[in-house]
Amino acid sequence: MKLARTNALTRSSRRKEALTFLQSQSHRWIKSLGCRVSESATKFTFSLGEKVGMRGKGAWISPSGCDYSTGSRHRTRAMTRMDLLIFLAALLILVALMLPGFLWPRHEGRVPRLQCLNNLKQICLAYRVWEADNNHTYPMFVPQTNGGSMEFTTGMNAFHHYQVMSNELSTPKVLFCPSESDPQRFVATNFAWLNNSNLSFFVGIVSNELSPQMILSGDHNLTNGTAIKNGLLEITSGHATGWTEEMHKKGGNVALSDGSVHRVNSDELQNLVVVSRASTNFLQMPVTFP
User: Fold this and answer.
1) pTM, two decimal places
2) Distance, first Cα to last Cα, the chain
């Protein structure tokens, strides 16, 4: 009997030692994960899936870094993938409903101006292609007998310079700005009937390839406070040059002789006039009346 009791005590003692060792190792492992271990925890349990923790009297220690020592065996449920997807879907719907209200005012004025810039780029390309086929000379310097428009550099004849480049331009639609507000102007359907009413852009009649910073073309809502004489507006560095409200809300686009296109405000436009280093930039405006 004494031997059996001694063996039972030995086994009990070994179980306690094993449990104490397992508990201490478990505490050390959980602490290494950044969790706090409750002193009342006595049993370490593993389960498949998301449950890995230390359960004891009034404690549930999760390896997620949180200690739920609340006296209850109910643990706080973490956000699942489905919860996350539902949250993101609701957030995207909210953004989709609110975003147009913020972007629409900018979008409304931005698209026509970008289209205007694109039209000017095509006009610049047409000039470059035409002058490459005509001894590197723009049509304003080539006589009409040689296919140019030199005889039409005054009066209501700005459309002639574009008309001689019909092959290079392909369509008269590029001569019209989407932001055009003049009710007397409209898009032409062909080059044969082209006139100033179909133009939104002026012509820099003294621009040439040797002066790359001179103004070649641009929106017609340009002014320097002086009157247009015989279809020409004289732009000099001595007179402040700017834009009217007729197009692009006191802004505009200009093309230079080097083929570049710029979106500028009034101050930037004045700077381009100075940089051109020309005593006078003669701009033939697309006037629709004498």
Assistant:
1) 0.63
2) 133
